[in-house]
Amino acid sequence: MRASGPSAPRPEPGHGYPELPETKSLSAWREAATHCRACDLWKNATQTVFGEGRRTAKVVFVGEQPGDREDLAGKPFVGPAGRVLDEALEAAGIDRAAVYLTNAVKHFKWRPAGKRRLHEKPNRSEIAACRLWLDAEIGILKPQVIVCLGAVAAQALISPTFKVTQQRGKLIPSSLAPHVVATVHPSSILRAPDDNARAREMKLFIADLQAVARVIRGLD
Ligand code: URA
Q1: Which atom of ligand 1 is least distant from the CA of 63?
Q2: Which of 71, 75, 88, 153 has its CA 20 to 30 A from that of 109?
Q3: What would the pLDDT profile of 20-44 be if each residue is shown by its tens digit?
Q4: What is the CATH number of the domain that holds 158?
């Protein structure tokens, strides 16, 4: 089940993990993940946000962690970053309904700021604790293409020293899937300082996804 790849040492089942399914049923793994206590992030999150998409998807997109909206909805990429992703996928000619979307970490990590919940980056041990679930998703789906969205996913799945700014859009040899590539996280586009920068960043993001679309077309 476990896909191989460079990452921090992973905790073994038993240490806060529920009983793990013996099957390759994604819904069984999704259900098991709702009971995960392998790190403390579940305590302040509404729910576990497992990946979503077709069981037959050839492409898996991996983000960082659910945001505020995803935490409430229980689905990945349904908030502002998801809307940027949707726009870029459409511009690149990739059908969101045909891919699988997930995150390196399945609980929302946040800190309070007045009435708002502000995103906090997951740390190495939280990412490592959640790796078991990501490995299960990858092991079940056996995707042809994995797209890492942002540094957290890229450093978890490709290399701890991976630099998205330098290596974005390049195919990376990996035992996880025949084609592994990283690009920026869509929320980085939302953080661009002005409209021009945002438009420029969006164009680059779409270009990276167009390269993914060419790989996908080559699979048929
Ligand atoms: N950011 C992510 O990395 N994943 C989501 O699901 C939403 C926002």
Answers
A1: 3
A2: 88
A3: 999 999 999 999 999 999 999 999 9
A4: 3.40.470.10
Provide the pLDDT confidence category of residue 164 given band limits of 50, 70 and 90.
Answer: very high
Is the shortest distance between the CB of 67 and ligand 1 below 6 Å?
Answer: yes
Task: Give residue 100 CA to ligand 1 midpoint distance, Å.
Answer: 13
**What CA–CA distance (Å, rounded) separates 100 from 53?**
4
Q: Of ligand 1's atoms, which has the minimum distance to the CA of residue 76?
A: 6
Assign 3 to helix, strand or coil.
coil
Task: Report the alpha-carbon distance of residue 82 to residue 70 in Å, rounded.
Answer: 9
Number of domains in the chain: 1
> Is position 1 within any domain?
no
Query: What are the two backbone dihedrals, phi and then psi, of residue 88, each rounded to the nearest 5 degrees?
Result: -70, -40
CA of 185 to the centre of ligand 1 (A): 8
pTM: 0.94
When the pLDDT of each residue in the chain is averaged and rounded to a whole number, the result is 94
Judge whether 6 lies within some domain: no
Give yes or no for residue 184 CB within 6 A of ligand 1: no
The pair of three-digit structure tokens given for residue 90, joined into one six-digit string: 């459409």
Alpha carbon distance 109, 88 (integer Å): 26
